[in-house]
Amino acid sequence: MAVATLTADKLRSSLTMLGIVIGNASVIAMVGIGQGAQNYTLNKLDSFGPNRLLVFSSRDDSEGFISEQRGLVLSDAEAVKKQASAVKSAAPVIENNLLISYRNNQTYTQVKGTTPALREIRNLIVDRGRFFDTSLMRQSSPVVVLGAELAEKLFDRENPIGKDIQIKNTSFQVIAVMTAKGSFAGENEDNVAYIPITTMATQIDGRRSAFGTPISHIQVAAKDKHNVRVAAFQITNLLTRLHGRKDFVVVANKSFQELVSQVTGVLSLMLGAIAGVSLFVGGVGIMNIMLVSVTERTPEIGLRKAIGATPQAILAQFLVESIILSVSGGLIGTAIGISGVAIVGVLTPLQPSVPIAAIALAVGISGGVGLIFGVVPARRAAQLDPIIALKNS
Q: What DSSP designation does 50 have?
């Protein structure tokens, strides 16, 4: 009977459900897209080294003013690797933005002088050729490894392995091309050239020896994810002792991951609250329409009571109608939300997903909204006096 009543005026029923539809669609879309954004960010951080730490020089000292500083040098990376027990490997890096050219093709790009350990720390995968090893580094060999995007810029479809390129007017032989990784948070490993750090120090920076060379930063890998905080603590103590003060910053990849989880969690709660407002508004809409329905159906209610219908039966009828409206709106909104999430998954690299628990919770809440906001009109219908109802009709 409730279904027949609701389907008798499809337009009104559809408009009554609209608020619930919008609310549920918003909830599902926000949950799915938020989950996708969080997974994308965490996967990207993992791809750049799940146990990675970075050590940077810092100009601000503990007394709050800027002063002359020692800065990070090559020997600091060696000390971190040998003396910090929670550290698996450490790679010093010297970065410079330099002109690279091959025949008529030339481009300014980031050149990183480093050690072979960086490949493991950053999960760098060689596509063609081989990454330079310790012997090439010790000999300050003029060899270079190109990122995938940089190799395409310089060589297009030509095989770059074995070819010579110019870096700051010095000839370097290409020995490898890396697999594309994509960019993240301003870092584009595909547009980078890697050369041995000793070559960078002696042939690019013009130093007589790499020993004592100032470096841009140190890339560090902890032994495992449980040792990241211990490694950060040991590095901080070690370098503070060597430098005589804390003129550096240690940043852990794990800290970024925790920060991302916290931020996305707060955003999900905030967006969920906004969607909850839509559900509340939808519930108020259902209550208003149901109150109008009670007024319009007064003769029907009076007639049913006159032939023996109890107040509980009238109450149940209107509650069922209210719940059917809200649950139907919830299911339609859920379907729209899932469709929107699927479209986002196709158009973006986020790969969003909606947990079954979120769908069940959203539909359950919409049913609860129908039950709560249907009580007032149902009680009003149940309390109508049959004689007065028939007289007014």
A: T
HSE-up of residue 328 (Cα within 13 Å, Cβ side): 17
Structure tokens, 7: 């389907």
Phi, psi dihedral angles at 109 (to 5 degrees)? -150, 170
Q: Is 219 left (phi over 0), alpha (psi -120 to 50) or beta?
A: beta
Query: Of the candidates 81, 93, 31, 89, which has an alpha carbon nearest to the alpha carbon of residue 57?
Result: 93
347: helix, strand or coil = helix
pLDDT at 70: 63
| Helix H or strand E encompassing 89 | strand 87-102
In whole angstroms, give the CA distance from residue 219 to residue 392: 84
Would you tell me the crossing angle of helices 10-47 and 311-347 to the nearest 10 degrees? 40
With a CB cutoff of 8 Å and minimum separation 6, the contacts of 380 are: 291, 294
Beta-bridge partner residues of 167: 100, 170
DSSP 3-state assignment of 52? strand
Long-range contacts of residues 60-64, Cβ cutoff 8 Å, at least 24 apart: 61/245, 61/246, 61/247, 62/245, 62/246
Q: Which of 26, 34, 35, 33 is nearest to 330 (CA)?
A: 26
Strand 187-188 vs strand 52-57: parallel, antiparallel, or unpaired? unpaired
Q: For residue 37, give the nearest of 344, 271, 360 by alpha carbon.
A: 344
The total of other beta-carbon atoms located within 10 Å of residue 82's CB is 11
| Alpha-carbon span 169 to 142, nearest angstrom | 12
Phi then psi for residue 196, to 5 deg, are: -60, 140
Find the DSSP H helices in the chain. Answer: 2-8, 10-47, 74-83, 117-121, 134-138, 148-155, 197-199, 228-243, 253-296, 298-306, 311-347, 356-382, 386-392
| Cβ(96)–Cβ(111) below 8 Å | yes
Series of mean pLDDT values for 10-residue runs along the chain (393 residues): 62 76 83 80 70 80 49 88 92 92 91 93 90 92 94 92 91 94 74 93 79 85 85 92 88 70 73 74 81 81 80 85 86 90 84 82 84 86 76 64
Residues facing residue 99 across a β-bridge: 108
Query: What whole-number distance in Å separates Cα of residue 235 and Cα of residue 87?
Result: 9
* Longest Cα–Cα distance in the chain: 109
